[in-house]
Amino acid sequence: MASNRTRGNTSIKHVVIDTSAIMMLFEYSIDLEKELTRILGKYKIIVPSAVINELKFLKEKGKGKKKTIAKPALKLAEGFEIIKDELNKADDAVLSVAKKTDGVVFSNDKELRSRAKKEKLKTICLRSKNYLMINENFV
């Protein structure tokens, strides 16, 4: 039985992903589809255009491991729905898109998750380097 049926959740959750979360997928062994289905049921990943721009910058100007990971991370991100935003800063764009779509912020950035909680947005982050956890507790 599908996980969304076991919870009675038939609505699609929007997952707004930031740069750190996309790059994290290439650093750790995480089955993104399996983990998001486990915690959300049905979902759709959204990437703000500012995140795409940040990945492009890291691909071109980054150093070391970040530059190496940025290329496949950008390719993955471009496979999701990209929402154009007017904001230049990726963190601001992630929060803005999450608010507009009633989405969940997927990030490993502590500061961004804190800002999301203050905005009463749910967050998803990595735990123990191999599974995702949703946080619904607001500050």
Task: Write the SSE topology.
Blueprint: H1 3-6, E1 13-17, H2 19-24, H3 32-40, E2 43-48, H4 49-61, H5 64-77, E3 81-83, H6 90-101, E4 104-106, H7 110-118, E5 123-127, E6 131-135
Parallel strand pairs: 1-2, 1-4, 2-3, 4-5
Antiparallel strand pairs: 5-6
3D structure, described in words:
The chain has helices spanning 3-6, 19-24, 32-40, 49-61, 64-77, 90-101, 110-118; strands at residues 13-17, 43-48, 81-83, 104-106, 123-127, 131-135. It has 139 residues and is of the alpha/beta class. It has one domain: 5'-nuclease (Rossmann fold, 3-Layer(aba) Sandwich). A six-stranded mixed sheet has the order 3-2-1-4-5-6, with helices on both faces. α4 (49-61) packs antiparallel against α5 (64-77) and α4 (49-61) packs antiparallel against α6 (90-101).
Mean pLDDT: 89
**Terminal Cα separation, in Å?**
35 Å
Find the CATH superfamily. Answer: 5'-nuclease
Biggest sheet descriptor? 6 strands, mixed
Number of helices: 7
Percentage of residues in DSSP E strands: 15-25%
Which strands sit side by side, in order, in the main sheet? Answer: 3-2-1-4-5-6
- Overall number of strands: 6
Radius of gyration: 14 Å
Uncertain residue segments:
1-8
Strand and helix order: HEHHEHHEHEHEE
**What is the domain tally?**
1
**Class computed from helices, strands and strand pairing:** alpha/beta
CATH architecture term: 3-Layer(aba) Sandwich
Question: So what's the CATH class?
Answer: Alpha Beta
CATH topology: Rossmann fold
The backbone outline, from C-alpha atoms, is globular
Oligomeric assembly = single chain
Helix content: 40-55%
